[in-house]
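Deviations from the work plan: none for this task. Representative record:
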Amino acid sequence: MASKLPKPPLEHSASGAGAAASEAHAAPPKGILRWLLTTNHKEIGSLYLIFSLIMFFIGGIFALVVRLELFQPGLQFVDPEFFNQMTTMHGLIMVFAAVMPAFTGLANWMIPLQIGAPDMALPRLNNFSFWLLPVAFILLLSTLLMPGGGPNFGWTFYAPLSTTYAPPSTTFFILAMHIAGISSILGAINIIATILNMRAPGMRMMDMPLFVWTWLITAFLLIAVMPVLAGVITMMLLDINFGTSFFDAAGGGDPVLFQHLFWFFGHPEVYIMILPAFGIVSAIIPTFARKPLFGYASMVYATASIAILSFLVWAHHMFVVGLPLVAELFFMYTTMLIAVPTGVKVFNWITTLFQGSITFETPMLFALAFVVLFTIGGFSGLMLAIAPADFQYHDTYFVVAHFHYVLVPGAIFSIMAGVYYWLPKWTGHYPSETLGRWHFWLSVIGVNLTFFPMHFSGLAGMPRRIPDYALQFADFNLVSSLGAFLFGLSQLLFVVVIVKCVRGGEKAPAKAWEGAEDLEWSVPSPAPLHTFETPPHVTPQPHP
Amino acid sequence: MSRRLAWLSGSGVMGLSAQAQASGWNMPVGVTDISAEIYSLHMTIFWICVVIGLVVFGVMFYSLFRYRRSRHPEAANFHENTTVEVIWTTLPLLILVGMAVPATATLKKMYDTSDAELDVMVTGQQWRWRYEYLGEEVAFTSNMSTPRAQIRGEEPFGEHYLLEVDRPLVLPINRKVRFLFTADDVIHSWWVPDFAVKQDTIPGFVNENWVRINEPGIYRGQCAELCGMDHGFMPIVVHALEEDEFDAWLAERRDEAAEEALGVDRDWALEELMARGEEVYGAICASCHQVEGQGMLPTFPALAGNERLIDDLAWHSDTVINGVSGTAMPAFRSTLNPVELAAVLTYTRNAWGNDTGDTVQPAQIAEQLAR
């Protein structure tokens, strides 16, 4: 199997590679300017990942404020107004500032390495895409300090609560979302341009690693739906500041139109946060099972099917909004259909394990937990697809449990798996296996303690987004809150692991994992600043 | 308080033995045919997921155990098998079709709102519900009755903490009741789990749903759509009565409404208006403008010491009756009757040191409304 790896160009394995490379390029500026001006995909990838980790903690603190208030019935710590700002900001920060930039960071680092390209296709644009993000989210966070407070209408910001009835800071929220949206679109253009134009000679589309495939499809989703988000927030801006009535029934507008537009963006957005996760897990499971991925082609087709279906299911978020019967039926059927390609993926991963030779290093633990817990989130998703039953599930903690299972042990575990998997390539050192295991087990226990009881509190009748609750929900909420603090605190271990790994640790060879197959393992660890300046030659062969 | 007791007395509600309790861990079976059907759909899809989960995770954990490296050092190399891939694509498809058939049938029944024997208009308002028995001249608002002191932890929690109201919706059993849902301000969602009725109430739109309750009892629910600050504090309580008890209750409410209408023509004393106004203010206005009239800036202006309010009665009454478009202040023209409007205007003009000494008479308001 190892014979598949192309020989690395000589200059990379030579010890003087760094010096030779920096002579070929202008010396980078020192200090902060280096990071402000960098056009290197590895440095920009690191910036994205560090930014997303910081935002993960900020969004996490907001979540802990929410869980602290919900620890017991009654209002003890915050008032309902601030509680609503916390639920809103938690959602916005986690979705737009933590999960999405983390995947973009991984894409920046790994896509050029996985396709044998020297950098992203549009390096300056890459720099611009990243530096828009701190601007957008500092602006968004600053709304918390403005008179009337920050956004308090939920991360779905349904009109007219987010227009006529919104705090004055909403205009800044809209600007922040526009900036973040531009960043996403530019990033997506760059990724598509890179993948389509810069693959190593001999690498066909169907030779690309699945992480590259899933990101290619994700990037098309981003380009398709971020403009819809931009449109809908611009309509809000006009309603708030320029006297239009897009969403104001009193002026002939339609509050339901907002929801159609939002979820036409919002449902593909959900898959934007999970497709790259599929790619990461599809790299890690074969590596540690020492066996090729089962059904590579069907994985690609399943990803494409999920992406296409994602445009046809948006109104399943709106089953109780008063849609006509025909629409309810259509969206129920299309939503149920999504279970088919998603099932194919899970079956493929498990068949990859079958008759493998499996070891359980930290990246593999996270990837395996992803498969199990994401599937549980998929099951509750299937239940939610049953429109009549959704009349009971909708807007309860059952939904909160569902999407957190898909996003936390789903998207976020896959990101962590990816970080543990690729840290040796980034830093040249293996992350601590002992600390990694502690981090993994505490996270798994914390995540399940937090989110599993939410299925029960939701079924028993607890609506979401309430700062206080009736007494019969007290036990479930107590467990959820304890779990949330366990999960939150154990993420400090993640930071410790990363910092230790950057500083030192067991040296990793170019091919850090015995069963790893893709091109990134042909360059030295740590990967020098410039790689694949001479493209490697990939011998066309049936994948894998 | 005495008004609230009067509301319930004579209806026999207090004597009801059947108290619907929250089910604990699972979705309630509920007290309608639809809610029972939805429960069975829920359990069917749940068990399908459990079985699939057992098979999938069974194979997975077997592989993890059996094919760990220490027991299985040489991995196999297969990576394709068209037969199994076709099977695991089509089999789920068949299961889904099997699930879609009963779900479609139930959904069709839920959408059939024809032949209702009673129409009730449900209007969501920040943060209360308004119920109107269409064609019966009976309408009232329903506010949470849990004292704020309990929420703040100054008093022990009551049995139905956060799930109790001053005036419950009263419905007959065994009759098809059609709900018409709308809202005055933002989107709310009216949800009673025991009926499996959850429907968004949307300003400018009217949604429909229906219920035929099988058992008398007290059923509780909550607003399910985030609707602002006090979203967590707008519960729903429904008293389902035997049909004859319901008819008696409705007749009594009709008489009461007629009596109230007569009140428009007489002159009211300041004290009378203040007492009534305080009640209305507490139920309707205090959630935004606060009990002491201090407001909550920047969204909700203070009323205590508000100079424009004190100086300009015409502006004040116009604001309350017609609302202020583009702000959170709704129009109360159809929500409150002339007596209630006059009382709350009088109250806000004289409470908290506003001391204008004005009495606003219901007759004046009735005239203004007619214009």
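Confidence is low (pLDDT under 50) at residues 1-22 of chain B.
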